[in-house]
Design goal:
single chain, about 170 residues, alpha/beta, six-stranded mixed β-sheet, globular, binds inosinic acid, binds magnesium ion
C-alpha cells in the first residue's frame, strides 16, 4: 500500500479547500479524464461547495502494459463549450506529462478563460513534457501504481487505496 484510503480523503479535502479559495463561485468546469479520474473527481467535487459543472473526456496515451507511448489521442470529447469558462483538468496521475500537456493545449485552443490542472499523484522524476500542475495530491516515486482509479490492463481501478503493482 502506498496511499491509504484515509490519507486520500484527508488530502482531497485539503485540495477542495484550496480550489474553493482560488475559484469561489465562478462556475468552473471540472474536466475529468476518463477513466482513471472517476473516483478522484467524484470525491473532489463533493469537497467543493461552489457552483461548478462537471464534464469528462477520454484520452489514450497508454497501450497495454506499463510504458508510455508519448502519443496522446482524444478518444472522447467534452459535451459542453468551454469558451470563456474557467477549466480545471482533473486526472489521476501525471507521469511523463505527455497526456496532461496535450490535453491542456487542446483545451486552451477553445478560448477558455483559464485552464489549470489537478492530479492526485505526481511522479515528478519521470517528467518528459513541460506542464504546470497546479494542484497535486501526493508526489510519489517512480513505481507503477494501481487503485483509486488507476489500472493495470483495466484492473484494480476499484481499490479504495493506492498500491504498488508489485505489492499486490
Ligand atoms: P503520462 O502521459 O505519462 O503523464 O501518463 C498519464 C497517464 O498514464 C495517466 O492518466 C494514467 O492513465 C497512466 N499512468 C501513468 N502512470 C501510471 C501508473 O503508475 N499506474 C497506472 N496508470 C498510470
Ligand atoms: Mg489516465
Amino acid at each position: 500500500m502506498l496511499v491509504a484510503e484515509k490519507e486520500i480523503a484527508a488530502r482531497v479535502a485539503e485540495l477542495g479547500r484550496a480550489i474553493t479559495r482560488d475559484y469561489g463561485d465562478t462556475n468552473l468546469v471540472l474536466v475529468g479524464v476518463l477513466q482513471g479520474a472517476i473516483p478522484f473527481v467524484a470525491d473532489l467535487m463533493r469537497s467543493l461547495p461552489i457552483a461548478l459543472t462537471v464534464d469528462f473526456l477520454r484520452a489514450s496515451s497508454y497501450g497495454p502494459g506499463t510504458t508510455s507511448s508519448g502519443i496522446v489521442r482524444l478518444v472522447a470529447d467534452l459535451s459542453i463549450d468551454i469558451a470563456g469558462r474557467h477549466v480545471l483538468i482533473v486526472d489521476d496521475i501525471v507521469d511523463t506529462g505527455h497526456t496532461l500537456a496535450a490535453l491542456k493545449r487542446a483545451l486552451e485552443a477553445r478560448h477558455p478563460e483559464s485552464v489549470r490542472t489537478c492530479v492526485l499523484l505526481d511522479k515528478t522524476g519521470r517528467r518528459e513534457a513541460e506542464v504546470t500542475v497546479d494542484y497535486v495530491g501526493f508526489a510519489i516515486p517512480n513505481v507503477f501504481v494501481v487503485g483509486y482509479g488507476l489500472d493495470y490492463d483495466g484492473l484494480y481501478r476499484n481499490l479504495p487505496h493506492v498500491a504498488t503493482l508489485e505489492g499486490l
